[in-house]
Design a protein that fits this description.
With 279 residues, the chain is α/β, with parallel strands linked by helices. Helix content is 41%, strand content 19%.
């Protein structure tokens, strides 16, 4: 099948749906990206135009296909120990402070909001495991970590905790040996997060544009990094307000180093680069 072009009218319809339902900005410069990424779905469905595809998506209420489309048009870039200064600050400043809070209730609750395929979640798990190995406390459940993402495909990958070995280059060797199992197939080498660490994690699909979403508990620490750059300013503010509502007083919010909150009236104060504390 030859390359199928996304006509201007169809791009406007699809772009408007993405902006309204996912909050992701869709300027004209993203037309080629959409056109390229969705080719495989048109081929799989034996369709000859994007008009046919949009009819299938919206008129047939194709829930499964909508999930495929969301996976293809959202960004999944992430790495283990990405922006490592945050994890150092978490271990050296945040965790000691939170644990000293009088009457501290366990487990500590952490949320990776926009977790993609799970690398950030498991990085947080390794940091906390290492901290509590060195500073044991009298509880069997010192922490839990929640990862959410709009992409159901990414969430499934995160749940499995299986990664290509070449994705683990950012993990210090002692942690790689302690928290991962290597596959026996050396032609396509993979690793899997050990069951003890995976058991601390919970994952589910969450769309920040869903006004009805509810979190299962307030969090002590929220990682919301390199997500809001895809939203316009009003959407950024609305999402951040809800994140703050779910963050405990004295809790911490981490954002990407290229992101800033200085334009927004939020109950936060900056305490380190791209790191905020809830007032």
């Amino acid at each position: 099948m030859s390359f199928i072009h996304l006509q201007t009218a169809d791009f406007k319809v699809l772009g408007a749906w993405i902006e309204e339902n996912l909050g992701v900005k869709m300027p004209a410069t993203k037309r080629v990206m959409l056109e390229t990424r969705l080719q495989k779905r048109l081929r799989a469905l034996h369709m000859n135009s994007f008009g046919q595809y949009l009819d299938h998506l919206f008129e047939d209420e194709a829930v499964e296909e909508l999930a495929f489309m969301v996976d293809l048009v959202t960004t999944h870039k992430t790495d283990f120990f990405r922006e490592p200064d945050h994890f150092t600050y978490l271990a050296e400043v945040v965790l000691p402070e939170l644990i000293r809070v009088p009457g501290r209730q366990y487990p500590l609750r952490l949320w990776s909001a926009g977790c993609s395929t799970g690398e950030e979640v498991y990085t947080l798990g390794m940091v906390l495991e290492e901290y509590f190995r060195k500073h044991p406390i009298r509880t069997k459940h010192p922490y839990s970590i929640l990862g959410t993402d709009v992409s159901s495909g990414s969430v499934q990958t995160a749940l499995q905790g299986i990664y290509s070995e070449n994705r683990t280059t950012g993990i210090p060797l002692p942690l790689l040996k302690r928290y991962f199992l290597r596959s026996k197939n050396r032609e396509t080498p993979k690793v899997r997060v050990i069951p003890q660490l995976r058991s601390r994690m919970e994952f589910f699909t969450l769309n920040f544009m869903d006004e009805q979403y509810r979190m299962p508990y307030p969090t002590d620490v929220t990682f919301y990094r390199n997500v809001m750059i895809y939203f316009d300013k009003p959407t950024q503010f609305q999402v951040l307000k809800r994140l703050c509502q779910n963050l405990k007083r004295g809790g911490y919010l981490f954002v990407g180093h290229s992101e800033t909150l200085h334009e927004f009236d939020l109950p936060l104060r900056i305490v380190a680069p791209a790191t905020y504390k809830r007032l």
